[in-house]
Amino acid sequence: EPEVTQTPSHQVTQMGQEVILRCVPISNHLYFYWYRQILGQKVEFLVSFYNNEISEKSEIFDDQFSVERPDGSNFTLKIRSTKLEDSAMYFCASSEGLDARGAEKLFFGSGTQLSVL
Amino acid sequence: EDQVTQSPEALRLQEGESSSLNCSYTVSGLRGLFWYRQDPGKGPEFLFTLYSAGEEKEKERLKATLTKKESFLHITAPKPEDSATYLCAVSPRGTSYGKLTFGQGTILTVHP
User: Minimal Cα distance from A95: which residue of B?
Assistant: First the structure.
């Protein structure tokens, strides 16, 4: 069964360093997302991406964050200067678009656990 | 503001002991309500989409139902392998289609 692949599974970095989290969405999917989950908290939306553009971003997704689809298979999240509060599990998700009833089913990767020291 | 609240926070069952998980939601307009299963250290795994009040979906020992204010995930004769965190999420109208608002989840533990 096709799946969303994320690397690395764990990333430890020093505060102020740049990190890039990588994702390979399901191959025929066109819509891409990043979510994050701080330990003990809800899964929360960061950004949606379609046709090489950001469709929507949350308040969390400030100028320190950026996303890119550098080629036909990868989707990346970059944090320019990490902060302690960026420590979380980051999930990539993809979808093929709307179903017949107007909703969109997301498939999630297993996540990258980011620890900022 | 769109909100999703799940209860209970944690639920312990004996194998074979049926029960229900609750998801209460407040949205300006519902495009869809989703149930996901999340195992420790993994991403959410899709279970069901419900679109309108009165709708029901079933998969093995799980049955999801939807009203205008809440959804229930009924677990019939659960097995230890059903142990996981169950997440409810809504897709509100007027936002990106894949922008989901999640509840905090119910941690289900099924003892043999």
Answer: B98
Query: Are the C-beta atoms of A4 and A108 separated by less than 8 Å?
Result: yes
Touching check for A41 and chain B: CB below 8 Å? yes
CA atoms within 13 A on the CB side of A55: 16
Q: Do A45 and B101 touch (CB under 8 A)?
A: yes
Contact B51 A98 (CB under 8 A): no
pLDDT of chain B along its 112 residues, tens only? 889 999 999 999 999 999 999 999 999 889 999 999 999 989 999 999 999 999 999 999 999 999 999 999 999 999 999 999 999 999 988 887 889 999 999 999 999 9
CB contact under 8 A, B43 and A44: no
Residue whose token pair is 């678009």: A97
pLDDT at A1 > cutoff 80: no
pLDDT tier at A99, thresholds 50, 70, 90: confident
- Test the A interface: residue of B49, B90, B96 with most A CBs within 10 Å: B96
- Note the pLDDT of residue B73: 98
The answer to whether the CB atoms of A108 and B99 lie below 8 A apart is no
Q: Which residues pair with B36 in a beta bridge?
A: B46, B87
3-state secondary structure of B79: coil
Separation in Å, CA A26 to CA A46, A92, B34, B106 = 19, 11, 20, 28
